[in-house]
Amino acid sequence: MSAHTDLPRRAELISSLDEKYVSNAVTFAAMHAAGTMIVDGAPLRGPDGALDRAAIRRRVERLSWFAPAMRQRLVPTPLRLTTPAWVPVTSLDLDYHVRFADRVEPDDPARVERFTGRLSPTMDPTRPLWDFEFVELDSGRVAIVMRYHHVVGDAMYGLRIGDVIAGTAAMTEPPEPGEQQYLELGIPPRNGVEVLALAFAQWRSRQPGVRQAWRAYWRKSFRMRLRRWGGRLLRPVKNARIARTGLLADVREGRRSAYEAVDLAAATRRAYKLGGTVNDLVTAATLVAMARQRPDAETLSILVPISRRGAGDGVVRNDISVVKVVVAASAPLDQIVPSVRAQVQAAVDSGGSVVEGAEDWVGYATSVTWGRDDRFFGTAPVETVTGWPAGDPRDEVACLACSYRRELVVSVTARSSVDLPALMAVYRELLAPAPVAAGVPNGAPNGASAGVGPAAGMS
To answer: Can you give the pLDDT at residue 124?
Structure first.
């Protein structure tokens, strides 16, 4: 930390919506988001040919100063009167946050479970909620498996952290943090009472006057606040019961993952021709795929997250709405895509979540864009990027499509009851996959057009 400035003490309460991601041990374990970058391994090695672990850890530590969320942890307030608060940490345990796999793994399309983050332990809720694992592949490449918890931020916020870790310019040495980084992060409060005082001061500063502050506070009923407080007080008891019943095993077991790489331009053209966006096309393809596995179904529904971010919302961690999209199970793709577009647009226009009727959705589908520019971890070119979906363990299927450079990688995690190879065949059919040349990376985590891993756990 800087020795030249009196740094401010900081604490930031999470929103009640964000608190749902840490409401109990099952939800906490399920909401680990993961992404995998496959990079050229040569720039990460030392003179002896082994990964230069000290240099890698030093790079991550320096870069973490430019992503303040990587240097914060959650702490409860006294008597759990409010939501937990983000507070700075004075130092990072890099042995915990930056790990290295013990053995070289095959660069094999049948081994995708190694890249989903499911094989890593559940994060420690008392530490900053992120970690990296560097996995050497027998091709010479290196997989960087990056995880962060959903309470840290949604996918769009996660991409902001990705922008820091893998920039668009190769850098031999990462920049040193300066006064601006130290001031932005600050130092932790002395105790829980100070956490509350700092959080109240931040909230009060956002209110234009006493009357407006009073109205803002009572916008939520006293009964709702009391119920949430009671839930926080009982949370340790609930988590102890969850540990005894083995419910956590259901989060980590009985799931498989797969991915499919398609040409981004081709997918974009097809989506436009059908009257939608790439996100609409991916959602529609997921619905078609699930409909083929339910020949007797009359309708199917799926959840679609919608970003509500606008100009100046970059600091907001989670800012999404959700719409439940319902279609006729027998409808063809050229009807489903415009139907998805219309329902999503109606939710956008309404300015809020639209989830009506029974909780009968098969899961969720969404997409994110990381841009067409080449990325680098240090001087190591990022060859492929894959995002792995995180979600409710009750979902049958969760789909996350991530575009990078000229490719769109569609990643799926599904319950073992889903015929995953058949599901992925539908994506190949409907999204026009890019041709694969032997030995050429194509956007999938290990250089193959698609892969299915054995049942492993959640992501």
So the answer is: 96
- Tell whether the model's pLDDT for residue 343 goes beyond 50: yes
Whether the per-residue pLDDT at 132 is higher than 60: the answer is yes
Tell me the per-residue pLDDT of 185-195, one tens digit each, with 9 for 90 and over. Answer: 999 999 999 99
5 lies in some domain: no
CB neighbour list of residue 182: distance below 8 Å, 6 or more residues apart: 1, 2, 5, 7, 65
- Beta strands (DSSP E) in 308-362 are 320-328
Domain contains 48? no
Closest CA to 452 of 422, 423, 421, 429: 421
pLDDT at 5: 57
First to last CA, the chain: 35
3-state secondary structure of 374: coil
> In this structure, are residues 5 and 432 in contact, taking their beta carbons and an 8 Å threshold?
no
104 is a domain residue: no
The structural domain count of the chain equals 1
Would you say the C-alpha torsion 99, 169, 367, 419 has a positive or negative sign? negative
Place of tokens 């190769």: 170
* Paired strand residues for 9: 187
The residue segments making up the domain with residue 418 are 253-371+389-452
Cβ proximity of 400 and 366 under 8 Å: yes
Please state the three-class secondary structure of 51-68 as a single string. Answer: ECHHHHHHHHHHHHCCCH
CATH of the domain at 444: 3.30.559.30
Beta carbons within 8 Å of 19's beta carbon, 6+ residues apart:
83, 84, 151, 228
Question: What residues contact residue 127 under an 8 Å CB cut-off, 6+ apart?
Answer: 73, 89, 93, 96, 97
Calpha distance 230→241 (Å, rounded): 17
Q: How far is CA 384 from CA 134, 411, 452, in A?
A: 15, 13, 17
Residue-wise pLDDT for 421-436, tens only, equals: 999 999 999 997 444 4
Burial class (CB in 10 A: 0-12, 13-18, 19+), 168: exposed
pLDDT at 104 over 80: yes
CB 270 within 8 A of CB 281: yes
* Consecutive H or E run containing 423: helix 420-431
Rounded CA-CA distance 44/212 in Å is 54
CB-based burial label for 142 (10 Å; 0-12, 13-18, 19+): buried
226 lies in a domain? no
Q: Is 303 a residue whose pLDDT tops 90?
A: yes
Alpha-helix residue ranges (DSSP H) falling in 246-277 = 247-252, 264-273
Q: At CA 233, angle to CA 232 and CA 237, rounded to 5? A: 100
Residue 100 or 311, more confident: 100
